[in-house]
Amino acid sequence: MEIIDLFFGVLAYFLMEGAAWAAHKYLMHGPLWVLHSDHHTKNPGFFEKNDFFFLIFAIPSWLCIMLGMIYGISESVAFGYGIAGYGLTYFLVHEIFIHQRFRFFRNTSNPYFKAVRLKHKLHHKNLDQHGAEHFGLLWVSRELIASQRIKKRS
To answer: Does residue 14 carry a pLDDT above 90?
Structure first.
């Protein structure tokens, strides 16, 4: 692996936070609300229509990797792996850590991780398509982190 490939993989990973934020705000809370709405309600069952977004977001990763391999463009392959890496992070943070679909990582005293959970909780306070806030996953404001540090001391 060359340094340029590593750069493209890391670049894709970090760009995905912005892409996920925009997709969540403008697509999931917009025309694709029909798939996302069940994520904002308490429905019985393990799977949600919202889980289809996993497949939707996997397509660019797959295409970058596949086409990069077919045409020998290592930067494209690395970019695809960066997208896939963010997808894995999303699964671990959103599905396991925040929503506890699998019972791991229940408790944490880390202010950043507590702020990630709080941010998501604030997003879910609004059950409607419009009016929600806090659309990203990993980017958390200093204020939210500081609020969790203060709670930790109390």
So the answer is: yes
